[in-house]
Write a structure and sequence with these properties.
Number of helices of chain B: 6
Number of domains of chain B: 1
Number of strands of chain A: 15
Largest sheet of chain A: 7 strands, parallel
CATH superfamily of the largest domain in chain A: NAD(P)-binding Rossmann-like Domain
Strand content of chain A: 15-25%
Number of domains of chain A: 2
CATH topology of chain B: Glucose Oxidase, domain 1
Helix content of chain A: 25-40%
Helix content of chain B: 10-25%
Number of strands of chain B: 15
CATH topology of the largest domain in chain A: Rossmann fold
Shape of chain B: globular
Distance between the termini of chain A: 61 Å
Structural class of chain A: alpha/beta
Distance between the termini of chain B: 28 Å
CATH class of the largest domain in chain A: Alpha Beta
CATH architecture of the largest domain in chain A: 3-Layer(aba) Sandwich
Structural class of chain B: alpha/beta
Oligomer: heterodimer
CATH superfamily of chain B: Putative cyclase
Radius of gyration of chain B: 19 Å
Shape of chain A: globular
Order of helices and strands of chain B: HEEEEEHEHEHEEEHEHEEEE
């Protein structure tokens, strides 16, 4: 049966306090979480004998070689045995019993203990994913090979994910280039309601009428540089924001030398301090509601430039604000960890907007960026790179940040 | 000095009334908007430092930020390129005596209600003078349009071809300057019309006023409470070193019987 919209809450009932699945991992096993955060399925491969390792370890289980490299791995697998856990001493699982688990033989070799979801069962060929659980750790999930309608409605996947269906979503800036496509994408994915922040209503803007005409969309005054507007809106709707997506972004081209700090100050105000203000206004309320049923608070999302990782000097001050915002998001991730509220960063390459007008392609269209945000939520990702440029930057950054810096800036040639 | 004693008595007994011509400094109050590649006028912002809490148990205070030209504000001569070399043209250099003076009000509210691009022309000024006498040297001239009653997007009234709001023609500003006025004030976001960029020279009020060392006041309110003549304006900007303008509280003293 399809997941039903939640009933209105009984105001006499206490909101459940979030519990988390076990979070402790070895240093090697943290690697699973790192790849799960990006939605990759990667395991350690022995550089010497090629054996695929599970669980993660420090030396190869086959040849004792000590060079184990995380590599994207075949997701094909077969369920050997399944069981339903009906009793558990762990508070998180006790609240969610029964819970389906199975031993799964990966095509790549290892047998793993996995959560069975979406109808995956014994004897079946399945597709493996590493997903972040509510504690932010990567866990093995076996899913049917074909994605099915309603698969994500499996309680086990809802418990670990940040799915959009039936959730109420606040998008911080209605004037962002991607806002229109994003709102449409969220509604299509089953969002119950979209609250849209409107900064500076005293300025007329194109596109307002389109939002006004949409069902289940409300425009509300919100400016991430104005504490008062944040306080007012949080007081009004803070208790029913399940997902917050920060689209507020101020960008002006130019390096650091040769211009004053007027644009840079605004970039910091909107992009970095704005993120802090949003988190301060809405974060505590959201963190308190992460176990609040079908429309529990699930994710705090912000859109960043991939140059947060390594700057493009043509947008020097803007990229500094992006690096600052990324750092803020990482701190929020730590601060929200105990509540299970996921902090997701959606990284984009140059967006096909006014400020990248003279740049040649490839550029990320606002529509693709919007789709990337929706995808990050549906897959429960923490770091999502949208478009070829962002993916390329991320890959090269992971390999060697020093080389990447010199490649982008043209230094050290 | 008995004149000040008389004034104090008049204020106390209500024979002289103090009218506030100032909008509240509010994050949502419109500011002038330039093409986006230019640096913009910072909006008024206020952040709490403490509020009788762990950040400061017995006191509440805020950090505030804004542009010199945010909210009801004063324009000094050095605000415009034509006034860059005016001696004493920064707000901190303006003599205190220049900040208090007589004020006359030209009522353009009917015209502005009819036409959002209403122009204050020499003919309008001369018609006013025919009724109220020649504009005295040293006086502030305020252009009443009731524009201050507009709210939200109606205030800047921005369209595809820029903002639309009333203001003076170049000839009108030149005429005012020739009368030896102290300065010129409006209820709109600037001393110039919304479409003032299309005059020759562009932004004639800024150009001619500041060239002649005159001052500007904008985003004024409550001009409908002032008499055409006979009121006194108190308009001291903050003493900002090298400042080109400043938000300020503008007060008018009016004789009671005219209200």
């Amino acid at each position: 049966m399809a997941l039903q919209p939640p009933k209105r809450k009984d105001p006499r009932r206490r909101s459940r306090v979030p519990t988390l699945p076990p979070a402790t991992r070895s240093r090697a096993a943290i690697g699973l979480s790192v790849v799960a955060a990006e939605g990759r399925f990667a395991l350690q491969h022995c550089a010497e004998c090629g054996a695929v390792q599970y669980p993660p370890r420090d030396v190869c289980g086959a040849c004792l070689g000590d060079t184990l490299v995380w590599r994207d791995t075949d997701t094909a697998a077969t369920v050997l045995a399944e069981t339903q856990v009906r009793a558990s001493p762990d508070p998180y699982f006790r609240e969610r019993l029964p819970w389906r688990m199975g031993s799964v033989k990966l095509a790549a070799g290892p047998v793993v203990l996995a959560h069975l979801a979406g109808g995956a069962g014994r004897g079946g060929d399945v597709r493996m994913e590493l997903r972040l659980d509510r504690a932010g750790q990567g866990v093995m999930v076996a899913l049917p090979q074909e994605r099915s309608e309603g698969m994500e409605e499996d309680p086990a996947l809802r418990a670990m994910g940040t799915q959009i269906k039936h959730r109420r979503i606040l998008v911080s800036d209605a004037r962002a280039p991607e806002a229109r496509a994003l709102v449409e994408g969220l509604l299509k994915a089953g969002a119950a309601h979209v609250y849209l922040g409107e900064p500076e209503a005293w300025l007329r803007w194109k596109g307002r009428a389109a939002f006004e005409a949409m069902q289940n969309v409300t425009l509300l005054p919100l400016d991430v540089t104005d504490v008062d507007s944040l306080k007012t809106l949080a007081a009004e709707i803070g208790g029913k924001v399940d997902i917050l997506i920060n689209t507020a972004r101020f960008i002006r081209p130019g390096g650091v030398l040769g211009q004053d700090t007027v644009h840079a100050a605004r970039e910091m105000e909107v992009n970095a301090l704005g993120l802090i203000r949003l988190a301060q206004a809405f974060g505590p309320g959201m963190a308190a509601r992460t176990a609040d049923g079908v429309n529990s608070a699930a994710a705090f999302v912000t859109v960043l430039s991939a140059h947060a990782l390594s700057p493009d000097p043509a947008f020097g001050a803007f990229n500094a604000s992006q690096a600052a915002a990324r750092s803020v998001a990482q701190t929020l991730r730590a601060e929200f960890a105990s509540s299970g509220l996921r902090v997701a960063c959606v990284y984009t390459g140059p967006v096909d907007d006014e400020w990248h007008q003279p740049l040649p392609p490839p550029k990320v269209s606002p529509r693709i960026l919007a789709r990337g945000v929706v995808e990050a939520l549906e897959r429960g990702l923490e770091d999502h790179f949208v478009g070829d440029v962002a993916r390329d930057i991320a890959e090269r950054w992971r390999e060697d940040p020093g080389t990447l810096e010199r490649e982008i800036t043209g230094g050290g040639a | 000095m008995s004149i000040l004693n008389d004034m104090a008595a008049a204020l106390a007994n209500g024979a002289v009334e103090v009218v506030d011509l100032t909008h509240t400094l509010d994050p949502d109050f419109p500011v002038i908007v330039l093409p986006p590649e230019f640096g913009q006028c910072a909006r008024f912002r206020m952040e709490e430092v403490s509020a009788y809490d762990h950040r400061g148990p017995a006191w509440k205070w805020h950090n505030i930020s804004m542009n010199e030209h945010t909210g009801t504000h004063f324009d000094a001569p050095i605000h415009w390129v034509s006034g860059r070399d005016v001696p004493g043209g920064a707000v901190d250099e303006i003599p205190a005596g220049a900040l208090v003076g007589p004020v006359v009000v030209i009522d353009c509210s009917h015209g502005a209600a009819r036409d959002e691009d209403y122009e204050l022309t020499p003919e309008v000024i001369e018609a006013w003078e025919a009724e109220h006498g020649r504009i005295p040297a040293g006086s502030w001239v305020l252009m009443r349009t009731d524009w201050s009653k507009r709210r939200g997007a109606e205030y800047l009234n921005m369209r595809e071809d820029g903002p639309h709001s009333p203001g003076p023609t170049p000839e009108a500003v030149k005429l005012l300057v020739s009368r030896g006025i102290r300065g010129f004030g409006t209820e709109t976001v600037g001393t110039d019309a919304g479409q003032g960029a299309h005059y020759d020279p562009p932004f004639p009020a800024h150009f001619f006023l500041h060239d002649a060392g005159k001052y500007g006041l904008q985003c004024l309110a409550n001009l409908d409470r002032l008499p055409p003549t006979g009121a006194l304006l108190i308009a001291p900007p903050l003493k900002i070193k090298g400042g080109t303008g400043s938000p300020l509280r503008v007060l008018a003293l009016i004789p009671k019987e005219t209200t």
